[in-house]
Design brief:
The chain is of the alpha/beta class. The chain folds into 2 domains: 19-253, Aspartate Aminotransferase, domain 2; 257-379, Alpha-Beta Complex (Aspartate Aminotransferase, domain 1), CATH 3.90.1150.10. It is built from 12 helices and 15 strands. The chain has helices at 19-29, 38-51, 63-73, 94-98, 117-131, 150-160, 211-221, 244-253, 257-275, 307-319, 347-354, 366-379; strands at residues 56-60, 81-85, 102-106, 137-141, 163-167, 175-176, 179-180, 187-191, 204-208, 281-283, 291-292, 298-302, 325-326, 342-343, 355-358. The chain has an 8-stranded mixed beta sheet with strand order 1-9-8-5-4-2-3-14, with helices on both faces. Strands 10-12-15-13 form a 4-stranded antiparallel beta sheet. Helix 1 runs antiparallel to helix 8 and helix 2 runs parallel beside helix 8 (244-253). The radius of gyration is 21 Å and the shape is globular. The structure holds pyridoxal-5'-phosphate. Residues 62-64, 88-89, 91-92, 141, 167, 169-170, 191, 193, 204 line the site of pyridoxal-5'-phosphate.
Length: 380
């Protein structure tokens, strides 16, 4: 490996042709340096084509804003409970609390690492018997790009008439049975943060069922301004629209999104090959051909390891110039959520104690993946 070069988890990667700069320059040249404009419209049209299924997409300032607006549109209010996958990043859950509602955490199953359908049903029944009310919504996550067990989860949600928000922030380009993640629930959340499959520097989007829902999202995303010549407000709104400059980056990134996804998947194949036959190490892969992860971050599990051993390996990788990271700390273990109800089976805690995220972005070469694997093998 090149001396002094660090290998990062997932860096933003711009097109070699400079598409991003072309669209950003256009925004400046035409003075569309505002949170609306031709790049926003065109990026949304690109996203709608990419997601398909007749969905509409509203471009927003972040994935977190998208989760929040999904809660607003589902009328989540103080006193409500919302079920959320515990094994995820805090942004999947924080907007539940912004609305004054209570998150109820549900653990994962070991195949996809996403919400366990049986535990979900148990949680719904138990909340109903304790509170006399059904949870208002379910936040389902596609962790590290892996699709959840949609059929089973959606069957449970349908049985109780609870709407699902899919947090596909990490799963842009992932598919389940050929259909893109983010198009299964009532709403789908996308993130274009700097470390995601494509970036707008910071940004996100909410995938929704059609034009009427999109109009509603845009209404709340632009301060809930009523159609009067002066500023009239009858609802509380937010400043969540995507900037036309950022959308220019997004438009450019849509020219290379397929290359990015291909590269993440190539690295998954490489890690799988490099660790095959290595005692205790397993690479997290699609559990069956129905699942088609984008492998946003490639992850490994070290069987029987502890968080101390994971930290030892992380530090050794760091010394060798490799960025790695423990898996998400389950939200039910986060001090800020210590009082939230939870339905657990030990899966996310076991994964947290024994997993590592490995470098995965377009800047990571096959040779570098080999170096990462060799460093881990010698650490073991
Ligand atoms: C699972 C998940 N949900 C939500 C978010 C929030 O997205 P953003 O950073 O664009 O607000 C992220 C990423 O940051 C994420 O990984």
């Amino acid at each position: 490996m090149e001396k002094n070069k660090r290998i990062y988890l997932c860096l933003a990667h711009m097109s070699e042709e400079g598409w991003e700069q072309k669209f950003v320059k256009e925004a400046f040249d035409t003075n569309w340096v505002v949170p609306l404009g031709p790049n926003v419209d065109a990026f949304e049209a690109d996203l709608e084509r990419f997601m398909g299924q007749g969905k509409c997409v509203a471009a927003l300032s972040s994935g977190t804003a998208a989760v929040h607006l999904s809660m607003v549109l589902l009328d989540v209010q103080p006193g409500d409970e919302v079920i959320c996958q515990s094994f995820t990043f805090a942004a999947s859950c924080n907007p539940i609390v912004y609305q004054g509602a209570t998150p109820v955490f549900v653990d994962s199953e070991p195949e996809t690492w996403n919400m366990d359908p049986d535990l979900l049903e148990k949680a719904i029944k138990d909340r109903l018997s304790r509170t006399g009310r059904l949870p208002k919504a379910i936040v389902l996550v596609c962790l590290y790009g892996m699709p959840p067990k949609y059929d089973e989860i959606l069957a449970v949600a349908d049985r109780y008439g609870i709407l699902v928000v899919e947090d596909a922030a990490e799963a842009f380009g992932s598919r389940y049975k050929g259909r893109p993640c983010g198009t299964f629930g009532r709403f789908g959340v996308l993130s274009f943060n700097g470390n995601k499959m494509i970036t707008t520097s910071g940004g996100g989007a909410l995938v929704c069922p059609g034009e009427a829902a999109k109009r509603k999202i845009l209404f709340y995303a632009t301060q809930a301004r009523e159609p009067f010549p002066y500023y009239q407000h009858e609802q509380i709104g937010y400043n969540y629209r995507m900037s036309n400059v950022c959308a220019g980056i997004g438009r450019g990134q849509m020219h290379v999104v397929e290359d990015h996804i291909r590269h993440h998947r190539l690295l998954a194949e490489q890690y799988d090959r490099l660790f095959s036959g290595v005692d205790r190490v397993s690479v997290h892969l699609n559990p069956s051909p129905e699942f088609d992860s984008n492998y946003w971050l490639n992850t490994i599990i070290l069987d029987g390891s502890s968080d101390k051993e994971i930290e030892r390996i992380r530090l050794l990788l760091d010394e060798a110039g490799v960025e790695s990271r423990p898996l998400w700390k389950p939200l039910h273990l986060q001090p800020v959520f210590k009082d939230a109800p939870r339905y657990l089976n030990g899966v996310s805690e076991r994964l947290f104690a024994s997993g590592l995220c490995l470098p995965s972005g377009p800047f990571v070469s096959v040779e570098e993946a080999g170096f990462v694997a060799d460093t881990i093998k010698s650490a073991l």
